[in-house]
User: Fold this.
Amino acid sequence: MDIFKLKEHHTDVRTEVTAGVTTFMAMLYIVPVNASILSIAGMPYDALITATAVMTIFASILNGLWSNTPVAMSVGMGLNAYFSFGLVKGMGIPWQSALGIVFVSGILYILISMTPLRRWLIETIPIDIKRAVSAGIGAFIAFIGLQQSKIIVDSQATLVTIGDFKDPHVILALVGLSLAILFTLKRYRSALILAIVLTTILAWVTGIEKLPEEFVSMPASMAPIAFKLDISSVLTLSMLPVILIFLITDLFDTLGTLTGVGMRADLFKTERSIPLQKTIEADAFATMVSGLAGVTSTTSFIESAAGVEEGGRTGLSAIVVGLLFVLPLFFLPFFIAIPSNAIYPILIVIGVMMFSELRHIDYGDSAIKYSTFFILFGMPLTYSITNGLLLGSVVYAFVRIVNGEYRHIGIAMGVLALVALLVFFVL
Assistant:
């Protein structure tokens, strides 16, 4: 075990294994949730269950070996919703082409992670813009959760309105949401997956959903989605903003997660620390592979903090997480039988967690204040992370110019603003 330098990190095998099990339980929800979201794009649910588990195994073990940090990785929330609802459903892009976008953004991510451009992006885009993006994505996926669970429904008069709370399926979603909030507030380590399981059992017992005849089976094939990406169709100027959004969002998500987990475990001393750089590199490579495997971008999971709280300090705990994700591969019948209204409430709770980034934003800065508003509301109201970020970028640059603060715009935000003008008024 010298490869992990356990003594140097003041830990041992037992502690690392315990930390890995804890993180695994905290992030197990990603398997049914991600499969459910991406299946809306027309992709087969069975294959998505396998692909999600396989990418979690691959990315977590890769990071454990490459960076020796206790950070587990899997398919990121936010971009998966944008993939299905924004690109495929909203823009009419075939899911094969959308996977091409994931792959190309992964290639760019790798190039950035290996050059000074990574540090330039980190340092030139204001931290409050990054927080606004996180909160905006949270609002976006929470809105999707509310809409898909029918807690909020379409309205001819007001666009949206409250759903029918007498509908058993809506009641089931409300119960699932209540359980997820309750368990999260009580700080249960497996709060989200526990809420899914209990809500599912309730649906089976009450007859809202049918009880599966079996729970265990051999893993489903990834063949229907693996290597089905279409790269040539996305190598156009019109697709550039979408590719950049995947790239920037994945980078921001990873940096935010690593900052939180790293501070708690004292892993990354500076933005130039070797473990931080290697973790970003592992995430970048896994993102590229995820496009090949048939799922959206991977990212570092904030649930890794649960393992850190248990004492995880090295890559051994991340490898344990990866190995444990072999188990979901053999429980496909169970995952298929999970009702959608046991899953969508989880999006709402995750959205709330991401939304909480707003508390750190400096609203005394007028450029930040106005751009945050347009980012935050632009994402759910336009059903697009791209539009939200680009709207915010234009507003940010405009307010800086009005205030005579030209030098404070920054190259990165200026470029985003120009891309936004190109997208909105030319493309």
User: Anything to note?
Assistant: The two ends are 55 Å apart (CA to CA). The first helix runs from residue 13 to 27. The chain has 18 helices and four strands.
